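Apologies for my clumsy wording, but could you write out the amino acids of a protein and the tokens describing how it folds?
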Amino acid sequence: MASESERESLPFEPKRDRKKTPKVPSRPQPAETSSGAKSRTQSRSRQGREGIPAAVSQRMLRRMALFSGLPTALGVVVFLVAYYLLSQEIIEFPKSLVLLATMGCFGLGVVGLSYGVISASWDESPGSLLGLSEFKLNFGRIRESRRANKSS
């Protein structure tokens, strides 16, 4: 693995040597000219190029669908099966058990959303199947970014 100074930083990593820009009092802007509109669209296109690459975005989306969709679907299935069992009087159990089981599944679905994003490889390489090593790396990046933003 390349050292921190050698590797190219990702678009959403914090900048190391970031300095605060002094706040400028707001002044009314003069009427916009056509050259001003061009520069604004050019800066927007630059921002788009620096965003999350398509391959990484698709990987995150697939992982979010898997790690969130399965527990959520399981919660719906648990609810429907419990409804059927109770309405047909096949088995008797407390309704609070159904509530806790479905809420637990839906809660796992919410956690799965976060895990799906953080466990995806943020580099162009696909990474591992479960993404445990990527999770450790990306969670470290997030913590580092929060510390950098908190101190500045």
